[in-house]
UniProtKB/TrEMBL annotation:
One of its GO terms (molecular function) is 4 iron, 4 sulfur cluster binding. This is Adenosine 5'-phosphosulfate reductase. Its cofactor is [4Fe-4S] cluster. It comes from Inhella gelatinilytica. One of its GO terms (biological process) is cysteine biosynthetic process. CDD domains: PAPS_reductase. Pfam families: PAPS_reduct. Residues 49-222 form the Phosphoadenosine phosphosulphate reductase domain. [4Fe-4S] cluster binds at residues 134-135, 216, 219. Its EC number is 1.8.4.10. InterPro entries: APS_reductase, PAPS/APS_Rdtase, PAPS_reduct_dom, Rossmann-like_a/b/a_fold. PANTHER family: 5'-ADENYLYLSULFATE REDUCTASE 1, CHLOROPLASTIC (PTHR46482:SF9), 5'-ADENYLYLSULFATE REDUCTASE 3, CHLOROPLASTIC (PTHR46482). The active site is at residue 243. Binds 1 [4Fe-4S] cluster per subunit. The gene is cysH.
Length: 249
């Protein structure tokens, strides 16, 4: 399968805020609880804490909470070498909006070269095993460097995102001796976008093209009405739609 066959380019354009943003009665309380979780984590872990941002809308909400409440929490992201230009464009926008630098972790160039030479540029389409191997080189290895020496990391996981994430905890062991914190795990999609609208959070313009979950460009497409949030990730697979970053130990 070729990446050119993805329906990504043909996705219609709309406004995610107009489509989804709905301020609920519970959202004020959820915001306060999320801030409290972040504050407690900053006290408990100090310099050992980092936000691992996918640069998706949930992570931008968390970055806004961190910056808005002046929390001393580092922010980092992965540049896999296959991200959309729109995704990478958020890094300078974060710096401009919040005055916060985002540490960028990239895969080891030689490992990428060897993998592509061995398996081809479109290895991810050949088998689940090769797709996961690609994720291993481009995501898992640089994530391990991002988290080296850290005692806790913050994610934008939400229980509503997929069946595989329905039991996401606010605070859990990541299987590597660190705490994995998901401060907005109980937020709905409508609440995420209501927060974005209220506080004018910068977001990826690809969200306006019906892409709620955005990963590497070859592996992301728009979703149809009624599809799972993560249906656009590795859409050619019958899998759990995970790359290994958030698989429970």
């Amino acid at each position: 399968m070729s990446a050119a066959l993805s329906p990504l380019a043909a996705a219609p354009t709309s406004s995610a805020i107009a489509l989804y943003a709905r301020w609920s009665r519970e959202l004020d309380g959820k915001i306060g609880a999320a801030v409290e979780r972040l504050q407690d984590a900053a006290v408990a872990h100090g310099a050992g804490l980092v936000q691992s941002s996918s640069l998706g809308v949930e992570d931008l909400v968390i970055t806004d909470l961190i910056a808005r409440h002046r929390l001393p929490i580092d922010i980092a992201t992965l540049d896999t070498g296959k991200l959309h230009a729109e995704t990478l464009g958020l890094i300078p926008r974060i710096a401009e909006r919040y005055g916060r630098e985002v540490a960028v972790f990239q895969p080891v160039n030689e490992q990428v070269i060897q993998f592509v030479r061995r398996e081809g540029e479109e290895a991810m389409f050949k088998s689940i095993e090769l797709r996961k191997a690609c994720c291993g080189v481009r995501k898992l290895e640089p994530l391990a460097r991002m988290l080296k020496g850290r005692s806790a990391w913050i994610t934008g996981l939400r229980r509503e995102q997929s069946g595989a994430r329905a039991e996401v905890a606010f605070d859990e062991d990541d299987g590597q001796g660190r705490r994995k914190l998901s401060p907005i795990a109980d937020w709905t999609w409508a609440e995420v976008w209501a927060y974005v609208e209220r506080f004018e959070v910068p977001t990826n313009p690809l969200h306006d093209q019906f892409m709620p979950s955005i990963g590497c460009a070859p592996c992301t497409r728009a979703i149809a009405v009624g599809e799972d949030f993560r249906a656009g990730r590795w859409w050619w697979e019958d899998s759990s739609k995970e790359c290994g970053l958030h698989v429970k130990p």
